Amino acid sequence: MLLSVFKKYKMQCGLIVIASLIMILFMATSPKTFLRPQIYLAFLSTVPFIGIMAVGITVVLVSAEIDLSFPAVMAFAGFAFATGYEFTGSLLVGVVMACAAGAAVGTLNGLMVTKIGVPSIIITLGMQFLIRGAVNILAGGMAKSMRGIVESPVFHALVGKVGGVIPAQSLWWLAITVIVWFMLFRHKFGDHVLFVGDNQETARMMGINVVRTKTLVFIAMGILAAFAGVLNTCRLQTWWPTMGEGYLMMVMAAAFVGGTSMFGGEGTILGTFIGAFLIGSLEAGIVAAGLSGFWTRFVYGLLILIAVTVHAYLRKRE
Amino acid sequence: MSLVEMNNIHKRFGEVVALRGVDFEVDDNEVVGLIGDNGAGKSTLIKILSGVFPLTEGEFYVKGQRINPNRYSVREAHGLGIETVYQERALGVKQSLWRNVFLGRQPANRLGFINVKEARQQTEAIMREFLGFTGGGVSPDSKIRTLSGGERQGVAIGRAMYFEADLVVLDEPTSALSVKEVGKVLNFIRQVKERGKSCVYISHTIANIYPVSDRFVILDRGAVAGEYERKSISESELVDVLTHHAVKAEQESKTPPRGG
After folding, report:
1. Which of A26, A109, B1, B184 has a Cα at 20 to 30 A from B191?
2. Residues A230, A233, A239, A244: is their CA dihedral positive or negative?
3. How far apart are CA B237 and CA A290, in angstroms?
4. Are B150 and A223 in contact (CB under 8 A)?
5. Set of chain A residues whose Cβ sits within 8 Å of the Cβ of B91
6. CB contact, 8 Å: A6 with chain B?
7. What is the pLDDT of residue B174?
8. CA gap B176, A103 in Å, rounded
9. Residue B8 — φ and ψ, nearest 5°?
10. B90: which chain A residues are within 8 Å (Cβ-Cβ)?
11. Which chain A residues are within 8 Å of B108, Cβ to Cβ?
12. Considering only CB atoms, which chain A residues are within 8 Å of B106?
């Protein structure tokens, strides 16, 4: 029984081993930092931005598509959030506007990919520039200060400290991960995503609406990026037009390190969760271990290459 | 009343004419062998029948009910009892057996969440009853890519049997199968007939199609080129008829088109 569970989740088990080894390495090299809870609480306040979008990109990858526009969507939705708050004084209105903005870009992405038939890597590359450009034009290149949001209970629900300790965004990350897992592996919609990503022609012949399924996947990605944008804006109490830059590679890396394939039809939400934690905590770990920041990218590269090699090996043996 | 009646069916894909006025009928409890060369329009015809493509022109009735081509879909075809087995092409190879068996009609609650336990149990029952998978390391959670060609075929067929189709359409089911596995497929067709259901069986291989079919319909370049009851034609005569069409088609394709 235990063996069969291990077999089924061997990829995730392998990943947990890698993650544990890295953490042990960090604990050995800088016990002062890594044997105290503060560093982990710091991770919990910054990793969720990567984690939430990585869960979204995992679903996009499972559908055999890709989305490069989400960092720009993060900024665009953050702008909608800040603007909504500015005009109404309500953070809730801002959140709704942000999610609507994310959903709108997702709809556009999805319809262009499915209806025009241009590969999503190209459509979303174009969209990424378009949205980033639009945000800069709309904001005149200026940041927006979110003064006074600390007083709103919505602020505390989004990025406050639960019990005075745990950053609320980490609980959002956890909740989103669980919900997306259920939607992907236990809901009819997820079943359709798996088959569409596995073989689009098969899915169509079995009566799955491919256009609708893919469009909904892009919409979900848009909303998740928007929500990450909202959280990020709240955390720093400022919105700025280059928000999201730098997240593209981190988020992709989290999904790939987690063991999700490029080719669609399969993916792992638990893997992505661990992958996001690894990618998100590496930089702090490296610096705390006394290596210079220059090492960060080198170690990222090493981790990604090792992880994907292990995954490929495990997949081949299946 | 016929189970399926298709009159004067045309199908165009842009400039390409795939079907030009096909009449096709399937009676209750009848096995129809649909024969023709590659590109004769067999697959197009059955994709229209099973709701994958809409027809361009023509009339189409199932159980006496007129089909609206704009609204007809795979789901509606399932609802009318038409199941199509596109052999292994209709399976998601990276997905588990149970997901494949229940694709498109998962046992789910009102919110759309799948009852995985029930799906696994029923898949196991299907495996025992229809597929003869007993032990052998195959479970409802096995991925399709770990199964052999014949086992994959079995999954697609078992799915159709489980859902009690009135009409089972088998698209080229005998290609890429071993002799023993072909025997299983033919047995399946006999079972369909014994249960009082109908079948459309599409194949190139006359030796397979002849003994199980009640009637043969020959398609040639998008039109019906002949229709024979099994009683009225022997296997070798049927082969001759097909060879005749194939030779004619080749000759015509070599003749330069007349006119401008």
Report:
1. B1
2. negative
3. 86
4. no
5. 202
6. no
7. 52
8. 45
9. 50, 50
10. 202, 205-206
11. 187-188
12. 188, 191
The rounded Cα A177 to chain-centroid distance in angstroms is 10
Q: Which of B197, B196, B195, B201 is nearest to B213 (CA)?
A: B201
* Rounded distance between C-alpha atoms, residue B38 and residue B44, angstroms: 11
User: Cα–Cα distance between A150 and A135 in angstroms, integer?
Assistant: 25
C-alpha dihedral (B47, B50, B54, B58), degrees to nearest 10: 90
Q: How far apart are CA B241 and CA B123, in angstroms?
A: 43
- The total number of residues shown for chain A amounts to 318
Average pLDDT, chain A: 91
Q: Cβ of A194 and B73 within 8 Å?
A: no
What would the pLDDT profile of B20-68 be if each residue is shown by its tens digit? 999 999 999 999 999 988 788 888 999 999 998 899 999 999 998 899 8
A130, A109 contact by CB (below 8 A): no
CA-based nearest residue to A228, from A25, A63, A120, A72: A72
Asked if the C-beta of A208 comes within 8 angstroms of chain B's C-beta atoms, the answer is: yes
Instruction: Report the relative pairing of strands B31-36 and B223-229 from DSSP bridges.
Output: unpaired
B84, B89, B92: residue with CB nearest A195: B92
Q: Which of A186, A202, A207 sits opposite B91 (nearest CB)?
A: A202
Query: A194 and B99: CB-CB below 8 Å?
Result: yes
Chain A: residue whose CA lies nearest to B111: A187
Residue of A nearest to B115 (CA): A186
d(CA B17, CA B155): 34
Kindly indicate the confidence band of residue B234, based on its pLDDT and cuts at 50, 70 and 90: confident
Structure tokens at B162: 């489980």
CA angle B115, A206, B12 (to 5 degrees): 160
For residues A267 and A260, is the Cβ–Cβ distance under 8 A? yes
CB B28 within 8 A of CB B81: no
For chain B, the distance separating the N- and C-terminal CA atoms, rounded to the nearest angstrom, is 46
CB < 8 Å to B74, chain A: 205-207
Query: In the block, which residue shows the tokens 């491919």?
Result: A210
* DSSP code, position B70: T
Pick from A187, A161, A199: which is nearest to A269 by CA?
A: A187
Across the range B226-233, mean pLDDT stands at 89
* Distance of residue A123 Cα from the nearest chain B Cα, in angstroms: 26
Strands (DSSP E) contained in A41-147 are: 144-145
Which residues in chain B touch residue A206, judged by CB atoms under 8 angstroms apart? 74, 90, 103-104
pLDDT tens per residue across span A130-151:
999 999 999 999 999 988 899 8
Q: Dig out the tokens for A145 from the structure.
A: 């200060």
Lowest mean pLDDT of A92-106, B46-60, B86-100, B211-225, name the range: B86-100
User: For residues A127 and B87, which has the higher predicted lDDT (pLDDT)?
Assistant: A127
State how far the Cα of A303 lies from the Cα of A296, in Å rounded to an integer.
11
CA dist., res. A67 & res. A58, Å (int)? 10
Amino acid at B161: M
What is the biggest distance separating any 2 CA atoms in chain A, rounded to whole angstroms?
Answer: 61
